[in-house]
Every structure is written in structure tokens, then in C-alpha cells.
Design a protein that fits this description.
Layout (H helix, E strand, L loop, with lengths): L2 H28 L11 H23 L9 H23 L9 H20 L1 H14 L11
Length: 151
Amino acid sequence: MPYHDYMLMRRLAVAWLPAIIWMDLIFYLSAQSRPLGKTPSPAFSYVAHFAEYAMLAFLLFWAQLSHGSWKGKLRTGLAISFVLSALFAASDEYHQSFVSGRTASWLDFATDAAGAAVALAIIGRWGHSFLWRQVRYRRTILPADPKRGPP
């Protein structure tokens, strides 16, 4: 494998791994009939759904920052992150319909989508500071892209 391909694969793995691990955790918890050992109160359940998908949307957006320049493309990244979060929420609710003791709920899906939307709205409001952090993230964690040189 050429060095450039290796570095590109490493860069993508480092960028997307947190989002993939978070999606695995959500899937694992939704496969449990009682993920916390007892039936949680409805208020706690909705707060948990909201927070899970807010974090997922943030991680999906963060992963997309590794794909090059974001100058003028903030809205595109936000839209892609929202669509991916909503699709995962829909698949999660569908998955829960097959788990004993769990049911699929449109209200849960709406709460998931609202969590993603609020997180992405916050990112959209303060997006320029996130994009500046992209530069620091590349310098500290991600390996340099050989085609573009050092960040």
C-alpha cells in the first residue's frame, strides 16, 4: 500500500472512529430490553434520546471536518450530519421494534431528530470557531496529508 493511501486511511479512521463507536453504543443499548436494569421514567428517556443524538450529530459533523477545506461549506456539512443522524434514528427505532420489551415510537424518533437539530444549530451558530478548531485538530491528532503538506 502506498504511503499516501495508508495516511488517508489512517486519517479517515481517526476521524470517523468516535462516531462509529457512538453508533455502536446506541445500537447496543437499543438491543437491550431494559438498558439500565429498570424501566426509566419517560422524562429521563426523552432526555437520554435527545442527548444521544445531539452527541451523534456533533461526532458526525466532526468526522466530516477531516475531508478537506470547509470554507463556505458549513451548511452542507450540517445538512449531511442531520440526514445521517435522522437515518440512524429511524433505523434504531425500527430495530427496537424487534426487541422484546421495547417498542418503536414516532415520538422517540422526533426526540432523536430534535437532539440532532439542536446540536447542529449550535454548531451552525458558532461554526466558525469549530472550523478554526479543525486546523488545530489536524495539527495535533490527524497525520499530515502528503498531498497538501503540513497543515
